[in-house]
Design goal:
The structure is a single chain. With 296 residues, the protein is α/β, with parallel strands linked by helices. It has a single domain (17-294), classed as 3-Layer(aba) Sandwich (Rossmann fold). Helix content is 34%, strand content 20%. The protein has eleven helices and eleven strands. The strands form two sheets. Strands 3-4-5-2-1-6-7-11-8 form a nine-stranded mixed β-sheet, with helices on both faces. A two-stranded antiparallel ribbon has the order 9-10. The longest helix has 19 residues, at 134-152.
Length: 296
C-alpha cells in the first residue's frame, strides 16, 4: 500500500485493506483547522468521534464532537435545547435513574470527565423518528442536518462510524440508522468526510461482503483509502472504564495492543458481539475514509 506521499508502507492492515490506496489521515487531522466530528450511528460512535476530535486538538486545531441519536420518548435528561432537535449536554448530570435504558445519552454523560481535553461538551442531533414512513423520516433527518450545519459556523464536518455498517449496510441493510443518516446528510448538501474506525469491529459484516461493499464504493469514487488508526485508537482506551469489553472501542484497543505485541495482522479474530464474525486483526486497528458526497 502507498502512503500519502507515494511511498510504500507495510501490510499492517491485513488482507484486502493493505491493497487499497493509503489515506493520509495525518493530513486530514493536521489540516482540519476548525472541525466538528459527528458520530453518525449513535452509541459508541461518540467515543470514535471524541478520539478523532482529540487528535485534531493535539495537532493544533479546534474541534468539537457530537452524536446522532434517534428520538427518545422519555426526553433528553441533562441536555439543553439549542435548536429544534439539537441539544447540548449540560454541566451537571441528571439523576442516573432518568438515564436507564437510554444508552447513548448515558454514554455522553459518562464521558463528561473528558470535556477538559476539548474544552467543550458534546452536541447531540436527533435525526431519527420512532415512527413514520421512510420519506418522512428522511425529511426529518435532512432538516436536522441543515440546522446542525448552521450551528457549525463553517467548521469542517467529519463523520465517524465504528465498524463500517455505514458502508456495508451491516445487519440492518440500507434501512439502518447509519445508512439513513448518511443519505440524509448527503441530501442536505453539507460537505463531509466520512471515516470508518475499526474495520469490521461491529461484527455485522463478513469479510467477503465487506470487500464487495468497498468495491461498490470504489467504483462510485467514494473510497479515499485506508489507514492505520495509531494514536486515534490510543485515545479510545478510556472506554474500558465506561463501556463493556464487547463494545467496539474496546475491541479496537485490544486489537491494537495485540498488533503492538507482535501478533499477526492477517489472523482472524472472533468479534464478541452479534454473530461473532471472524475479522482480520489488522482491520480492527485500521480505518477507511470516504468522500461523503459520493457514498452509495
Amino acid at each position: 500500500m502507498e502512503s500519502g506521499n507515494g511511498k510504500r508502507i507495510g501490510g499492517g492492515l491485513g488482507p484486502r485493506m493493505s491493497e487499497l490506496k493509503a489515506f493520509d489521515i495525518g493530513a486530514l487531522i493536521g489540516g482540519a483547522g476548525e472541525a466538528f466530528v459527528l458520530g453518525i450511528g449513535g452509541g459508541s460512535d461518540a467515543i470514535g468521534a471524541f478520539a478523532v476530535a482529540s487528535a485534531i486538538a493535539r495537532a493544533g486545531g479546534r474541534a468539537r464532537y457530537g452524536l446522532c441519536v434517534s428520538e427518545k420518548p422519555a426526553g433528553y435528561p441533562g441536555f439543553e435545547t439549542i435548536d429544534e432537535n439539537l441539544y447540548l449536554r449540560g454541566g451537571a448530570g441528571p439523576d442516573p435513574a432518568l438515564l436507564e435504558g437510554i444508552w447513548s445519552l448515558k454514554l455522553l454523560h459518562d464521558m463528561s470527565g473528558r470535556d477538559e481535553i476539548l474544552g467543550n461538551p458534546p452536541l447531540m442531533a436527533v435525526t431519527g423518528l420512532k415512527s413514520g414512513d421512510a420519506a418522512g423520516n428522511a425529511r426529518f433527518a435532512e432538516e436536522a442536518f441543515s440546522r446542525l450545519a448552521a450551528h457549525m459556523r463553517g467548521s469542517r464536518l467529519i463523520t465517524v462510524d465504528m465498524g463500517g455498517d455505514s458502508a456495508t449496510g451491516g445487519k440492518d441493510g440500507d434501512g439502518g440508522f447509519d445508512r439513513a443518516n448518511l443519505r440524509a446528510l448527503k441530501a442536505s448538501g453539507v460537505r463531509f468526510t466520512h471515516l470508518v474506525l475499526g474495520i469490521g469491529c461491529d461484527g455485522e459484516t463478513e469479510p467477503g461482503d465487506f470487500s464487495d461493499a468497498l468495491d461498490r464504493q470504489e467504483e462510485a469514487g467514494a473510497l479515499l483509502g485506508a489507514f492505520e488508526l495509531g494514536d486515534i485508537a490510543d485515545s479510545m482506551r478510556f472506554a474500558e472504564e465506561i463501556v463493556p469489553l464487547h463494545r467496539t472501542p474496546n475491541i479496537i484497543s485490544k486489537a491494537k495492543a495485540e498488533l503492538d505485541a507482535g501478533l499477526p495482522a492477517d489472523e482472524p479474530v472472533e468479534i464478541p458481539r452479534h454473530d461473532r464474525k471472524r475479522i482480520p486483526r489488522g482491520w480492527l486497528a485500521g480505518g477507511l475514509a470516504f468522500d461523503g458526497g459520493k457514498l452509495v
